[in-house]
Amino acid sequence: MGGELSAAAAWILSKVNELDLSAALRRHFGHPGFRPGQEQAVRAAIAGRDVLLVMPTGAGKSVCYQLPALVDNALSVVVSPLVSLMQDQVEGLAGRAGLVNAQRDRAENQRTLRRAVEGELAMLYVAPERFAAPGFIEELRAARIGLFVVDEAHCVSQWGHDFRPDYFRLGEVARALGARSLFAATATATPRVAQDVVRRLGLDDPLRITTGFERPNLSYDVVPVPSARAKREATLALLTEAGSLPAIVYAGTRKKTDETAAWLTQALRQPVPAYHAGMEREPRAAAQRAFMSGETPVVVATNAFGMGVDKADVRTVIHEAVPSSLEAYYQEAGRAGRDGLASRCVLLAENRDKGLHVFFINQVDDPEAKRHRWRQYREVWGFVEGEVCRRAAILRHFGDRTSPHASGRCCDVCDGALIDATPRRAAPRSEAGAAGAAGAGERGSIERAILTVVREAEPAVGRTRAVEILRGGRSKVIVRYGYDALPGYGDFHDWRADDVLREVDALIDGGMLRSTGGRFPKLGLTARAA
User: Fold this and answer.
1) What 3-state class would DSSP assign to 301?
2) Interacting residues of 125 by C-beta distance below 8 A, sequence separation 6+
3) Bridge pairing between strands 523-525 and 145-151
């Protein structure tokens, strides 16, 4: 990008190849040397060249734009959607950086902006929506902007897993501010997303640096679970193994996050906080502080706890629901092992997750966006149900052609199953007699549940739909007619469908239920049942 340079800045640019950046790295950050890709990115940024940096979580992206800001005489503007991350980075830069966002009062924001304009700060961290505030761009234009950084740059792309409309204007904003160059950084850009970022930000012949997506210290395991009960047992088993903590459990939805945190608090006999966007600001912040400080070794969260969590020693990341895309999974799993030590990423995959994915995809109106969501659906379920090395599948998804390299355990495909999530049962439920399916009480329970569903369902349901309701299905029909609100919904989620269907047929044969017959037969209660 263009822009006038001061004499001091011009001098820096003319001497860029002579700068002892290693000494600057040691002085400002205490690091003994650059990691792969860092020095090239730093030199390009100092030289005023646009940069697209794709670097995995924990590999040191922030240093690549912070160091140029600290050795330059111009202000660097860093745009990030993550308040917690911005706060952490500002606190770690010893007064050289400031923060402007909606969670600070107006007076604080004005003081910080004034310091930035007057040259007292090297970096100004800004949330993307701030540029829509009246007068903000005009006030900031009074500063001499060197680097304009777009962190989490995949948010720019409508093909990215975390697209945010506020990011669309950032290229225009950078030019309006007269920034010398643009620096786009992300950990989760596929080749298609990376190209879209370049186009939407208007990067000018950027230096593209991709350091690869391999995380050798992480293991990736997919564990099929047949039911919610089996999922709970698997989660508890993983969290109680030696060396498994600290741990993050991603529960998928806000409701599940609260429920999982509650039962884990009881099962582990210690506080397990929940974290999601539906919580009030202070309880959410308290949950993050407790986890980051080590006060509570386990946190249960939605993807709101994804980007910006900079805790180096997370040993285990468990997904209790299949994420909506492989990019989202890679980013969230990447919270593990940022200190380089062996850590594990475990995805507990239940087929009912498919129904929830389909439900949300069908809420999308835009045809192109819907096609993209279906593509993500096929990709993530292809990963879950695939039989090739998980590590290789992740690398290929991101266009990384390097050979997979694990420093320890690789994945369930290469090293065998991590745990057995098959639910424990005393005996097969489908058999009769004392050694048979269920005890008299349990059989009575399933019979009452079936009869209740048939009586209450409106419209009436057939055999297979009754089974789906009792097992907690999430099909479009279940949601449309509110069958998930019926008594007994999901109460037999750990039963096999064939076993529940056998109980339904037994009630028909026993004269308690009748079928209407025809092409789409429905069930009803007989006079005897009533």
Assistant:
1) strand
2) 78, 80, 86, 89, 90, 97, 98, 99, 100, 101
3) unpaired
Q: Helix axis angle, 21-29 relative to 38-46, nearest 10°?
A: 100
Q: Do 227 and 350 touch, CB atoms closer than 8 A?
A: yes
Residue pointed to by tokens 């501010």: 177
Q: How far out from the chain centre does Cα 81 lie?
A: 14
Question: Do residues 128 and 156 make contact, with C-beta atoms less than 8 angstroms apart?
Answer: no
Distance CA 482, CA 522 (A): 17
Report the helix count and the strand count for the chain, using DSSP H and E.
Answer: 21, 15
Residue located via tokens 């990376």: 194
Q: Which tokens in the block code for residue 53?
A: 């940096």
Query: How far from the centroid of its chain's Cα atoms is residue 414's Cα?
Result: 25
Model confidence pLDDT, tens digit, residues 52-109: 999 887 778 888 998 998 888 889 999 987 665 666 677 667 678 888 877 777 888 8
Q: What is the pLDDT of residues 478-497, one digit of tens each?
A: 888 888 878 888 888 878 88
- Residue whose tokens read 């929940």: 274
The angle at the Cα of 395, spanning 392 to 397, to the nearest 5 degrees, equals: 105
Q: How far apart are CA 30 and CA 42, in angstroms?
A: 16
Q: Over 60: is that where the pLDDT of 260 sits?
A: yes
Q: Give, as one character, the DSSP assignment of residue 488.
A: T
CA distance 262 to 447: 31
Residue with tokens 């409106």: 458
Report the predicted TM-score, pTM, of the whole model to 2 decimal places. Answer: 0.70
* pLDDT exceeds 70 at position 410: yes
Contact 169, 97 (CB under 8 A): no
Cα gap 104→150, rounded to integer Å: 21
